[in-house]
């Protein structure tokens, strides 16, 4: 149910950095036609991923080779600025024809009327869609997205440094401490306001993994005892100096690939990215060893821009992507992620990557990183929560006060 309505003008008013503004110029598509061929643009932050980006671009090229009336060009926008950049452009009636969104921005764009309904464009009854995650693609009977990627979070660990994966939080902490020496760290996670969206993804696992939640579906519960317990665990690890403080995700992921970080909580898409950085790295995956088996998932829909003058042609691409062979190929590109439809992992892939089943088994206990009941307001709530949590990490306020402040600020935002 929609509890909050965001006006299109509000989305358009989001401030844009100079870099984002420059990117905007390269993202738009007028749905133009040359020689009877409609040219579309598909924007996704993953197109800039060093491991998966080139493979996704080749996948798009396969679509283009199969068509004579529609062509799709890729547009990579960096993840930290992706949502702000695309929402701003869509809010002014422009933007890419096709967009791979993360859930918070998907909810905002949907609520603002910036996404084209797909009910009349795609007959989903033809496809065996994943039921649990697919429910989040529909709002009030209107389908606004098709899952492009569903990527559950798990614990990645260096199998040369860690012979037996920790199965409890206490073991997790002890393992992180024992591995931290010199220029090697036991763990890594995001902890700077500059990576707001990424910090939100990281702390989501601590909140839900300790029995917390951002809301009860009707009221925000940011400062609940369970949330405090989970975020205290996150802060305790920060205070223990078992992570490379101040480093961004790109840096500590490179460190993991180089054997300088022992553990990282990440989603299934990280498998391909890690192998892309170091094909010889001996790593493994296990469920996150927190008290409650509940974790985040990168649920990324592909949508059609309401402003696109070529919605039918854009739907042609989505229908091509949903064909069984193309779904399997997309899943192999994405790594340990799931796609929109039910697929079977090949024996060859399971032999190559036995832990794929770890990710698949987490689907029913994974949640998209949105605030339930306040989906469209998630980006605003996220900003408030991350700002206050980072303040607590930096010691300017105690964690309980930080969460009380976040509860008050966010409650005022949602009305």
TrEMBL record:
Signal among keywords: yes
UniProt KW keywords: Signal, Sugar transport, Transport
Alphabetical list of Gene3D superfamilies matching this protein: Periplasmic binding protein-like II
Transport is among the record's keywords: yes
First and last residue of the signal peptide: 1-20
Matching PROSITE patterns: PROKAR_LIPOPROTEIN
Cross-referenced InterPro entries: Bact_solute-bd_prot1, SBP
Top-level lineage group: Bacteria
UniProt protein name: Multiple sugar transport system substrate-binding protein
């Amino acid at each position: 149910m929609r509890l909050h309505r965001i006006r299109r003008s509000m989305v358009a008013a989001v401030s844009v950095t100079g870099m984002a503004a420059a990117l905007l110029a390269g993202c738009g598509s007028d749905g133009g036609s040359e020689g009877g061929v409609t040219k579309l643009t598909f924007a996704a932050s993953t197109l800039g991923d060093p491991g998966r980006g080139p493979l996704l671009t080749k996948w798009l090229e396969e679509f283009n080779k199969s068509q004579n009336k529609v062509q799709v060009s890729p547009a990579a926008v960096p993840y930290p600025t992706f949502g702000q950049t695309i929402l701003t452009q869509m809010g002014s009636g422009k933007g890419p024809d096709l967009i791979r969104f993360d859930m918070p921005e998907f909810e905002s764009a949907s609520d603002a009327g910036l996404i084209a309904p797909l009910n009349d464009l795609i007959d989903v009854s033809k496809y065996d869609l994943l039921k649990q995650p697919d429910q989040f693609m529909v709002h009030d009977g209107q389908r606004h997205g098709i899952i492009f990627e569903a990527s559950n979070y798990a614990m990645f660990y260096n199998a040369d440094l860690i012979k037996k994966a920790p199965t409890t939080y206490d073991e997790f902490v002890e393992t992180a401490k024992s591995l931290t020496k010199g220029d090697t760290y036991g763990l890594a996670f995001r902890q700077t306001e500059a990576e707001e969206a990424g910090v939100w993804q990281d702390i989501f696992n601590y909140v839900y993994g300790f029995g917390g939640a951002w809301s009860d579906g009707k009221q925000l519960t940011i400062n609940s005892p369970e949330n405090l317990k989970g975020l205290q665990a996150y802060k305790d690890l920060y205070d223990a100096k078992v992570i490379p403080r101040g480093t961004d995700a790109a840096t500590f992921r490179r460190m993991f690939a180089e054997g300088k970080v022992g553990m990282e909580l990440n989603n299934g898409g990280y498998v391909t990215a890690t192998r892309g950085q170091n094909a010889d790295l001996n790593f493994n995956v296990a469920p996150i060893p927190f008290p409650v088996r509940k974790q985040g998932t990168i649920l990324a829909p592909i949508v059609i821009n309401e402003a696109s003058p070529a919605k039918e042609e854009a739907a042609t691409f989505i229908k091509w992507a949903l064909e069984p062979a193309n779904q399997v190929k997309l899943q192999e590109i994405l790594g340990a992620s799931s796609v929109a439809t039910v697929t079977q992992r090949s024996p060859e892939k399971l032999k190559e990557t036995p832990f794929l089943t770890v990710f698949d088994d987490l689907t029913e206990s994974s949640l998209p990183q949105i605030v339930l009941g306040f989906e469209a307001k998630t980006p605003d709530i996220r900003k408030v929560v991350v700002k206050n949590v980072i303040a607590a990490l930096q010691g300017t306020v105690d964690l309980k006060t930080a969460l009380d402040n976040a509860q008050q600020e966010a409650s005022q935002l949602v009305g």
